[in-house]
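Holo prediction — biotin.
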Amino acid sequence: MKAEILTLLRESGKYISGQELCERFGVTRTAVWKAVNQLKAEGYEIEAVQNKGYKLVKQPDVFTQNELISRIHTKWAGSNILFYDSIGSTNHKAKLLAEEGAPEGTLVVAGEQTAGRGRKGREWISPPDVNVYFTLLLRPSFQPDKASMLTLVMALAVKSAVEDVCGKAAEIKWPNDIVMNKKKVTGILTEMSLQGGEIQYVVIGVGMNVKTQPFSPDFNDKATSMEIESGKEISRALLLQRVLEQFENYYDLFLETMDLSLLKEEYNHSLINHNREVRVLDPAGEYTGTALGINNKGELLVRLPDASIKEVYAGEVSVRGIYGYV
Ligand code: BTN
């Protein structure tokens, strides 16, 4: 009921009488009063005025299971939300849940990760109370070779949500970084499990730097946070809500063709590396060329000095600018 009261108060923006809340939820006035008090204890400023009722006057950056349930009204992404104040890794937890039969759309969210993982087995530093760490579980019926494209679908969703919530431009660094002011604000790690050559499940993990600051000197030139770049206080719950709404939209477009043909133009338009010189860090050998954008499969097309075009598959490959991170 707490989450529903919150949704009502947030969406109305006006006073709602205690009587109306009682009738809506079929509970006593005391039960409503108790729920409101619990919400206040969680950090919401709720004004109670006699003969008028309750009004949500301020919502600080509350990031809890209730806040997320009260906001996320998507069709399927986040239909089942598990929130942890602290956990090893949301990707790891989502994989365990998937093995136990958790449904598509299951969302694992954490306030802190003690064993957060990035691409290529790197650590993903995940301090408490400042950022968003989440993993979305999918059970697609397409062929495994298409799964890597989901990272790019998520990148579009994150980019769009970041711009909406921060009011500032964000770009994508192929394949999976979201960048503001040429520095990384978000990373995406997609993992899949196969059974008999078919996809059993896919987990898409997203780590968003929302408030982290200041960065250590090692990271300063490569990473930033949304609050640093926008100069605004960002609601983590709103940000996550927007990412999931956007993901559903972009995923629908992906499913129409089972590739990125309907998303390619927008992706290339958002691509920070577009038409720039890049250094391709391939474990099999580094090389440089001009990034021309992605193809329908999400591979990066790179024009080499001999004018031939190479299709770069994400896998273990990273791309850098010639002089730095982008
Ligand atoms: C990268 O850029 O290297 C990808 C980083 C992905 C980090 C997220 S945070 C939530 C989820 N859980 C993890 O352990 N990793 C991903």
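READOUT: The radius of gyration is 22 Å.
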